[in-house]
């Protein structure tokens, strides 16, 4: 399978190179050259297919012959070894729970798939050691650390802002050891991100180490998110409306890709917090990035969503075509809090702040269009990850899942550095 750069449609790469590089040399996002619909038989058999079979059939064309069937299936089966239930919340509205993975957020799927692919290529092609360098404001770091743990030939370096991630998130980053190093930066998330960006541009470092990133621009993190939509569809009878709490728009873009492969979907709703760049674009047709604003659904505090160009590409850059299948809404923290409270009181269902925004988007779309289609919002994180906000609204303890209980007893291991780039540089050049 060939991928082209969205900055230059004449620049091609194979899957391996797209995964190892992340971005094209011209800084464009990679996009598949051809998208082939899945056969009608796939959709007829869908309710009977295993998740592994669904994953394999849907992603196979994007990997091509670069990973043999047996190895690709091994990677997918590790990626999907937990549940993705569609849980009814109220009449006409269900939650697709994506938080049953090891770090309790949907990013586990993308991170594990990418780790599997990178591990495979590192061994097969003798790439030597690869360093995955990421800055995290919370969820990404945990999922990446967990996904890459013990993958041979890959070292992971995660920068996180000291005192700015939740206790649970910090434990997820700092207790694994092995090939995972957590750098605790005396600064804020923007400092971490700036340091990482500078490292990618620093030739003293890139000649010393092979660096790659693990954010959702990487095709191996983006594409496996299609699996959720097929796995949801196998559990329901009718064509659904999907509402997706969106930040960088990788997840919803993968849903649109699943539809491109033939999955019947009535409509897609992008649900945003006050970071509403895409909502404005849908109204005006003009894309104007903004600085991000901090909210309680902080994984969606993005003012310039990196995957939106892929969505435009899927619709041939036609604003009207996009509008037919896709809507976007924006909600305040106050709306979000009220929803967490009310849905718990009325339906006894605990939403996290991101899922609550998804629920709101779905509700608004169904109301506005008087649609009869079953509505599914994606619940992207377990409420325990946002304990303070959620417990404040529901006035009850959130049950802590068994899988994370032991984390609280483990010892944190991090390397403290300042927010000066030279500190990171010394570490990456092994000068410590
Ligand atoms: C990352 C994240 C999102 C946003 O997903 P995108 O693919 O960036 O749109 C939503 N909810 C949670 C909990 C997340 O961690």
UniProtKB/TrEMBL annotation:
Biological processes per GO annotation: threonine biosynthetic process
Classification via Pfam families: PALP, Thr_synth_N
Keywords of this entry: Amino-acid biosynthesis, Lyase, Pyridoxal phosphate, Threonine biosynthesis
Gene3D superfamilies, alphabetized: 3.40.50.1100, Threonine synthase, N-terminal domain (3.90.1380.10)
Residues with the N6-(pyridoxal phosphate)lysine modification: 107
tRNA processing as UniProt keyword: no
Coiled coil: none
Enzyme class label: lyase
Gene Ontology MF: a single term: threonine synthase activity
The reaction(s) this protein catalyses: O-phospho-L-homoserine + H2O = L-threonine + phosphate
Necessary cofactors: pyridoxal 5'-phosphate
EC number per UniProt: 4.2.3.1
Pathway: Amino-acid biosynthesis; L-threonine biosynthesis; L-threonine from L-aspartate: step 5/5
InterPro entries per record: Ser/Thr_deHydtase_PyrdxlP-BS, Thr_synth_N, Thr_synth_N_sf, Thr_synthase-like, Threonine_Synthase, TrpB-like_PALP, TrpB-like_PALP_sf
Similarity section: Belongs to the threonine synthase family.
NCBIfam families cross-referenced by the UniProt entry: thrC
Name listed for the protein in its UniProt record: Threonine synthase
Species of the source: Christiangramia flava JLT2011
Lineage: Bacteria, Pseudomonadati, Bacteroidota, Flavobacteriia, Flavobacteriales
């Amino acid at each position: 399978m060939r991928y082209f750069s969205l900055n230059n449609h004449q620049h091609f790469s194979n899957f391996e190179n797209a995964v190892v590089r992340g971005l094209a040399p011209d800084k464009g996002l990679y996009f598949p050259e051809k998208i082939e619909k899945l056969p009608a038989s796939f959709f007829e058999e869908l309710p009977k297919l295993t998740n592994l079979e669904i994953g394999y059939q849907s992603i196979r064309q994007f990997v091509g012959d670069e990973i043999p069937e047996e190895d690709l299936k091994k990677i997918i089966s590790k990626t999907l070894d937990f549940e993705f239930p569609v849980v009814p919340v109220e009449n006409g509205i269900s939650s697709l729970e994506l938080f049953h993975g090891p770090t309790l957020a949907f990013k586990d799927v993308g991170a594990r798939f990418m780790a599997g692919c990178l591990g495979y290529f590192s061994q097969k092609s003798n790439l030597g050691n690869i360093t995955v360098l990421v800055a995290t404001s919370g969820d990404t770091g945990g999922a990446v650390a967990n996904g890459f743990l013990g993958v041979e030939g890959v070292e992971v370096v995660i920068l996180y802002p000291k005192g700015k991630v939740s206790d649970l998130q910090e434990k997820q980053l700092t207790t694994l050891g092995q090939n995972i190093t957590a750098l605790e930066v005396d600064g804020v998330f923007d400092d971490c991100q700036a340091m990482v960006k500078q490292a990618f541009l620093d030739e003293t470092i890139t000649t010393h180490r092979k660096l790659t990133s693990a954010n959702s621009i990487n095709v191996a993190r983006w594409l496996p998110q299609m699996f959720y939509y097929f796995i949801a569809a196998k559990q329901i009878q009718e064509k659904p409306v999907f509402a997706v709490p969106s930040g960088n728009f990788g997840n919803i873009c993968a849903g649109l890709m699943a539809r491109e492969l033939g999955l019947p979907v009535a409509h897609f709703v992008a649900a945003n917090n006050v970071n509403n760049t895409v909502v404005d674009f849908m109204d005006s047709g003009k894309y104007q990035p903004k600085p991000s604003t901090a909210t309680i659904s902080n994984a969606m505090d993005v003012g310039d969503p990196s995957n939106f160009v892929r969505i435009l590409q899927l619709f041939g850059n036609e604003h009207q075509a996009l509008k037919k299948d896709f809507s976007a809404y924006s909600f305040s923290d106050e709306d979000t809090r009220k929803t967490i409270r009310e849905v718990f009181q009325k339906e006894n269902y605990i939403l996290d702040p991101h899922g609550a925004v998804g629920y709101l988007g779905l509700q608004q779309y169904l109301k506005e269009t008087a649609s009869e289609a079953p509505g599914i919002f994606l619940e992207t994180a377990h409420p325990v990850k946002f304990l303070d906000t959620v417990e404040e609204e529901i006035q009850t303890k959130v049950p802590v899942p068994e899988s994370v209980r032991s984390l609280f007893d483990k010892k944190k291991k991090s390397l403290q550095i300042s927010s000066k780039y030279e500190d990171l540089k010394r570490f990456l050049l092994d000068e410590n």
